[in-house]
Amino acid sequence: MEEELEFGPFRVIPSQRRLLRDRKVVPLGSRAIDILIHLIAHAGEVRTNREIVKHVWPDTVVDEANIRVHISGIRRALNDTQRPPRFIANIPGRGYAFIAPVTKRPAPPGENSAPAPCLPMTDLGTGRIFGRESLVETISAHLGHSRLLTIVGPGGIGKTTVARAVIARDRSEGLVLWVDLSSVSGGHLVPTVVASALGILSRTDNILREIAAHLRTRSALVVLDSCEHLVGSVAEFAECLLAETPGLRILATSREPLRASGERVHRIPPLELPIATLTASAAMRSPAVQLFVERADGCLGQYELTDEDAPYVGGICEKLDGIALAIELAAGRLETIGVKALAQSLSDCFRVLTLGRRTALPRHQTLRATLDWSYMILPKAEQSALGELSVFRGHFSEEAAAAVVSGGNAEAVLASLVAKSLVVADASSGPTQYRLLDTTRLYASEKLMETGATSAVMASLAEHLRIIFEDAEHELVSASAADWTRNYAQHTDDLRAALEWAFAEGRDPLLGVRLIIAALPFFYRLSLLDECLAWVPRAITDLDAHPGLDERSRMKLYAALGWPQICRTGAPAHGIAAWSQALRIAEGIGDTDYQLRAIWALWVDAVNRAEPCLGLTFAERFRALASSSPDPADPVIGKRLFGATLHWLGRHAEARDHLQQMLAEYAALPASRHSVRFQFDQNVTARIVLARSNWLLGNEEQALCEVEDALAHAKEIQHNLSFSNALAEAACPLALLASRDDLAIHYTALLKEHTKALSLDVWNRYADCFEAEIALRKGRPDKCARQLGMILPTLRDSGFTLFQTIFQSVAARALRDMGKHVDALRVIDSAIADCASSGERWCLAELHRVKGTILLVDGLPNARERAGDSYRRALAEARRDGAIAWERRVNASLHALSPPCRMPEGDQVRIVPSAGGGRLPEPSIPERRELSAMNNRSQAHCPAAGLPTEFPSRLRQQGRQALAR
Fold first, then answer.
1. Which residue has the higher pLDDT, 874 or 340?
2. What ranges does the record give for the region Disordered, renumbered to this chain (predicted)?
3. 301 near 331, Cβ under 8 Å?
4. What's the pLDDT tens digit per position in 119-128?
């Protein structure tokens, strides 16, 4: 017929067997064009499969599956994949009908009348790709010298998109043929489908030979898309065809390699995810985010990523593992849901991600359909194994897989699942580690639940983790802290999942108890105290319900329950009761180790409550028991407890000597796990008190260097508790005492950051107190007083009064500067009284000095005399304790008295040697500020006063110079 058939935007020229749109050829295979012409010729009629076969393959026996393949190809060419169809309707049980109006008209004279050859499938509309440019370039280069190349990756990763981009980039001459195998049900049909796409009418039973004959003298690239369900047949077909056709190259896409001779495999990684997403511009450097934004823009008509949306979009892409299809589906939901809500809803991603593009293949229109396609083609053993492996929340080893996979042969099953892109293998650092992408894991978890085997597999996981953590405790001694953390931190999410399962609805609480006890060192080493303390009471409840079942486990759990007193506000009395119970059980079963742990905890509580006299009793008890311990480090640790207690009692030189000796002896011991037994790294916690003692003894630079060493060591061993402890009890307070405001601000910010992340309440409150003092130094006494007024009661009610007295001195100074002298005196007198009742002395001299500064400006007639009395008391206390740092401060305050108070001969102001020898150093900046303020206030109350002439000339000159500066 020299005519053309027109429908919608398309034209068919039957004589040329050509389909056009806007005068451009639409690629369509020979048999497909025959079917289309036949249906158009009978427009409006239902044509059965038998009638179509008889017309298109009159002399050949053809499986009816061929018709479905070609109808699918025709619909894609006509963009007729939506519902309801515009052109070709499927009449269930009967056949197909062309339903669009058709207009017949003569073909224009300018049309080429020569029959068209087999049309190459090159116009595939690749569209824009994201983050795959270098991969496309690499595959294109390899395709130039590899005759069989397979692009491999999980469903929805973008294999077809990359293949299309490779073809679009390929500039070689010859035929390019695209064959979609997704709807081909049997491997025996592969040659038939390829022959049909080539337009070959088979005249023999050997279709492969006819394909080879057709391509033997041609340069051709054949793309076999979606081979995963036919890999064996496709591999055989490709090997045979390549052997007969020297000019042929084959590019395949599959979820697993074909494993054919000469095959080169390229695995497609997920799209690159954003790093810590702070801004939209930073997030847009990620290909995953770029894809999301483009699809969102196409969905909404106009969408630009904002700084507000950026963290949510980054989280969405990360949750979806950088899988291109899943990201496209997620962006498509923005028609009905906002970005923030979408990010929060992805826990049920299979329900949310259901609206794919109408033109997409059915298996790509929902996330579940994509995974269904991969799952259904797995053998039963691999389906079961995939579900069982879904209990792992992160990376797992081959040994771990063997612990949960039933039926044995886990190694072979795991290798097969890796090959099929359902499990990811990573051998980049050490032994191979495996994991399931989150989307795959959630899907496989559902399948496991459907089988009813979830409890059995979770029990296997819990038992495997118990063994791992028991081994981990033994390795604490032999492995470095960094290696130990790296080896075992990966089990954190699995441990959480196993404990949640064990204690949920009483599934297996005793297994949960054994797992918690095995994991206690793990929780301590990784500073996961909150999580540990959330599980321990549940375990105790289950053991208490079985009296006498396992006293050693009860002892360990009560010991763990006592740990909140170390770092959490709340109810320390509960912790002390728990430690006391642990001590009773330990004494009953003769466990020296846990007796020492419990005594240590009771000592910590006494120190935290600022009761150093009671603390000294526990320290001596610890030292007595430690002498019989099989661990040679225990007597050394007892020396640390004793030295630290001496510091709080004001015996600073003795404390320094004990701690220096302890550190030397501890360094000579073999590696230990004392950060687990006694919560903190012993090197770090000893240096904390040594630094404080050095500062009080006048060795300021040495003290600050000791702080830096302690922080560096804690950071090196990656022990967050020890690092936070060093910040809270040494770095921040000593920076403030040394008037290093910049350093104090830096350390306090670090302390806030670490303690907030780890829920370390006490040290976080300490950071608030340090911030209050910094505010005072910046001239904001109101802010300082307000902040301390809120925080100190919380610490006091929780039993954390270790630093209450020094914080009270800061509050008193703030009240003084606000003119609230009565309140200031009440606060400082309370602090002094507390020291008198508890035996705390480390800062007693400073408390009396601060009281003197308050008395000096309270406006009473005898203010100066009363201030002088406080200064004399401060000087006596400082000299009694050998606290040179406090003595210097008292001397600076005494210099400011105008006129000087008469003092007994033994209490006259003296020049105190500095740390390096020599004479009294110039006052620090805060001391100069306070000196100046006191002088101004003194002159306000006594106008004739100033720097009196009775002062020795050198001191008067030094004071004036200090004031001038």
1. 874
2. 933-965
3. no
4. 344 344 445 7
